[in-house]
Amino acid sequence: MSKSPSRDTTTESVDDYLKALFHLGSEGKKNVSGGAVAQRLSVAPASVTNMIQKLAAAKLPFVLYERHDGARLTPRGRRRALEIIRHHRLIETFLHRELGYPIDELHDEAERLEHFISESFEDRIAEKMGHPHVDPHGQCIPAKDGSMPESHGLKCFCIRS
After folding, report:
1. pLDDT tens figures, 65-121
2. What gap in Å lies between CA 14 and CA 45, rounded to an integer?
3. Which residue among 79, 92, 137, 138 is the one 20 to 30 A from 106 at the CA level?
4. What is the full DSSP assignment across the chain?
5. Are 49 and 42 within 8 A, CB to CB?
6. CATH topology for 12-73?
7. Where do the HTH dtxR-type domain residues begin and end (predicted)?
8. CATH topology of domain 82-161
């Protein structure tokens, strides 16, 4: 599936690490230990260290990493994490509203699909549903521009202008 040149092309694994760092690190703004990432993703700590080092060593890094301080997202990493989170939450909303999926089946289905939708598909499902701001679980859907209201750990009851 083609992606627009402005979008980062990443693997499912990279996307999952970026999402984990976003969720564990107060929306990607705080450092996260490798152990916390390993637990969230159910992978070995050594695998986390290898991936984090790889993401930090890229020419345009997705993360900042200090061995004893953990890792946190760079602006590029945060943008990509929010893009994947947007995909996930739009897919959940689409599956629930348009296809009648029960709430308990949404997450796993969206996890499989979130990495593969094109920008065109993202735009079309958002438009079809009237550009929703909240998913069926009450979580804010990031805006197309990557902005996200601060949730402070609460369910989203956001209003965007």
Report:
1. 998 899 999 999 999 999 999 999 999 999 999 999 999 999 999 999 999 999 999
2. 15
3. 79
4. ----TTS----HHHHHHHHHHHHHTTTTTS-B-HHHHHHHHT--HHHHHHHHHHHHHSSS-SEEEETTTEEEE-HHHHHHHHHHHHHHHHHHHHHHHHH---HHHHHHHHHHHTTT--HHHHHHHHHHTT--SB-TTSPBPPPTTS-----TTSPP-----
5. no
6. Arc Repressor Mutant, subunit A (1.10.10)
7. 10-74
8. Arc Repressor Mutant, subunit A (1.10.10)
Residues constituting the chain? 161
The encoded tokens of residue 24 equal 């564990």
